[in-house]
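PROTOCOL LOG
Step 1. Enter all chains and additional molecules of the complex.
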Amino acid sequence: MKNIKYIAIMALGLVACEPELDNSVEDAGFYSSGNADLSRFVSVGNSLTAGYADGTLYIAGQNNSFPNILAGQFAKAGGGLFTQPLMNDNVGGLLLNGTVSDLASNRVVLAESEFGIIGPASIEGTPSTEISNRLSGSFNNMGVPSVKSYEVAEAGFGALINVNTFTAPAYYSRFASSDTSSILDDATAQDPTFFTFWIGSNDVLLYALNGGDGADQLGNPVTSTYGENDITDPTVFADSYTAALSAMTAGGAKGIVCNLPSVTDIPYFTTVPYAPLDPTNPAFGPMIPTLNATFAQLNGAFAFLGVPERSIVFSTTGPSAVVIKDESLTDISASLTAVLAGGGLDIATATLFGQLYGQARQSNANDMLVLPSSTVIGQVNTDAVAYFMSLGLPQADAGQLAINGVTYPLEDKWVLIPMEQALVANAQASYNATISALAAADDNIAFVDMQLFLNQLNNGGISYDAGAVTSTYASGGGFSLDGVHPTARGYSLIANIMIDEINSSFNATIPKVNPGYYPTVYID
Amino acid sequence: MKKLLSFILFFLVGSTLYAGGYRVSIQGQKQLAMGHTGVAVISSAESVFFNPASMSFLDGKMNVSIGASAIFGNTRFENKEFGIAEETDNPLGTPFNIYATYKANDWLSFGLAAYTPFGSSVEWENDWAGSHLVNNIDLKAIFIQPTIALKISDQLSIGGGPIYANGSVKFNKNLSRSLTDTDGNRTNVTVEEKGISAWGYTIGVMIKPTEKLNIGFNYRSKIIMKVEGGSADFQNVPDDFFNPATGAQVNLSDGTFDAELPMPAETTIGLSYEFCDKFLFAFDYNFAQWSEYEALTVVFDNDAGTSVSPRNYKDSETFRFGLQYKAHKKFTVRTGIYFDESPVQDGYFAPETPRNDSVGYTAGLSFNVNDKLSIDASFLYLHFDEIDNSYDHYQENGKNVSFEGVYKSSVIAPGLGLSYKL
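Step 2. Run joint prediction.
Step 3. Record the structure below.
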């Protein structure tokens, strides 16, 4: 009996010992969701919603997806459980029936090469995320990398049979509820009370990422004829987007929509300078006199043909622009060959030069070299060498004519020329007009301006307690090593912008996160 | 009896938190119950600690006191801006003390003491919001003190002795707020060293101007615990780590560290006064020279280099009041209160020692089993107000980054001891 008393006293002591604050952040009602109900939160979108970074999906990245960060803060204001279709590893990439799929790649990390050069490199390891191994249950994060506006509602999108041709179904296939479901079905089936809906970037981004190596489908409503890297017709976009958004709000849910940041303002397009050729580079500098002597002949022909602006000259004192193929130029191959032959060049060489430089020019400040071009510029294009040799050129000559961006004009996919940039900008402006109009028309929908967000990253950055996050590739902290997707820190900034918007639109008081706690690029 | 002994032995591994900085003021159950006064109290072998000089005036040829307390202490941290709520899961702290005195003749007394006046055991959840400052720390020190007292007259005695300190430290924190390996595991370091030894001393003076009034003085020297070549264990470092800005390799392989931790000098003066036969009032004033603790500087032998965490402690004072009432020949009851000033200054409030000013409420009683043996129980409740404070001297990108929030600590410490007089 006595012992029980002691135990009771001890227990009292232990309880009294729990430090409590008078006004704790964990008290019910300390943070409010205002007139939004955060209990069932579902996110629909593409890779940006999925937490994609460094060129792939991987667990550590998904843990820092903006919807997951949001859900963590929502939980302090009545939010419920939030689930994500996590990958199987931190390597990234995908397996299809046990074989590594070329639809996804390993994660990119910052690594030091054996020559001591620091740069992005593919992480070692074999992907272990099997596409055909479908996860069970429903997932609050319905972000599917590569998905486009008109694919969100496509029934059967995740059927394994679709996986071989397009990237998006590969990811969705892993967690689709069935072979006949759509992403939108799986989202609305969860009866969301709150959502984020951020879709549309891929309708124009995939075209841009591939240097405009696709088609503009303006005016074509038949999406089954679209290639993966095409630009979606704005009417198709508007119809798909409107229908999908009304499905999201049909149950009375409130939510956030985001417009599309200007895709050509991301480091993928702004990192490689248009004039990357450095005369102090021992592999390039000594070649310049020979190159200029050779191109002098060509430049004469350009002048004769009335296109002196196409002249190719490399500077011995400063950086030089690369030679690119500009499809928007009139193809003067035939006349170029004729002029060169007339000037005394043997017909075989004249023909080859005509082919090579018929639409060539040096790049200028208006061209955008895509990030991966940095790995090919100045390198010998082995496909071109093989082609030249098949024409009968000796290997040495073939090699000299096959240097990417120097003697061999950079192919379309490495450069986004102004004409292509205009197509991208036009489509995007049209998409954004649709998005902001829909948001403005419905009080239940809050609007987040991602274009403004990217502008801020590009112009001085967004400050946090240990500095500023900018869009500068690798070192700015905002963009992951793929140059397209944010880092965890970038996603935390996005979550904060959304929280600001929710707080003001729905009269809520959800706390933000501190970006300083989120990683940037990973070092291997 | 056997049970009690085993209870005390069980807790002989001592480590604790709470009392200015990492000072743990629990050095005797009788005196703790009186607000941890004692520099001018002549009562039991606990005097070896409180004032070695007072050994001269103890009754009996031999006195022994042993005891231990169990500290249940935790700290809560909240930050309203980001909605962070965290709480420590501190292990039980168990400061103990063993004291013995022996009166060789009328003017010469010997004493021996073992006690744990410094320690800190704070355990936050790994990777919590303040993990770049501390995940967990466990600091322990045992002091062993052979003592001598000389009775100069019936009104005056002096005493003192050397102190041998033996301590250990284990400290883990994350290297930054965001650095991880490629799997997202936070990069962290554990520094650990055992068997750190150092020397110091204590001296005391006791004056008895009247039969009922005692005045005491005690000075305890500073002791610097020096670690040379302790182990530094780095975890979750990226495989091939380099500085992305310069490309320079950064070697964060496991190695050793050097560091110093001061245990500051403490001066105490006080008095005790007997009144109405059965009452004893005691007052102590402590002055701890915490300004010694300017920074926690850890020197690693790898590229982590020298890590300096400014502490900038200030000297601190404690005012203690105690009352004893001999209620019955079998019972003596005690109570006390003390006002403990924290040495931690605004802007230096680090979660590794989350200490603000506190008020200690104490109570206890002795049960006299017979003329020789008594059982001493004590209870301490240490009250802390909520405090909104920050640590502003952590650096990232060459910028001071503040770690701010509301802290609230709560401590109780029940204790039990035995006093034996021959």
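Step 4. Note key features.
Chain A touches chain B through 48 residues (CB under 8 Å).
Chain A has 17 helices and 15 strands.
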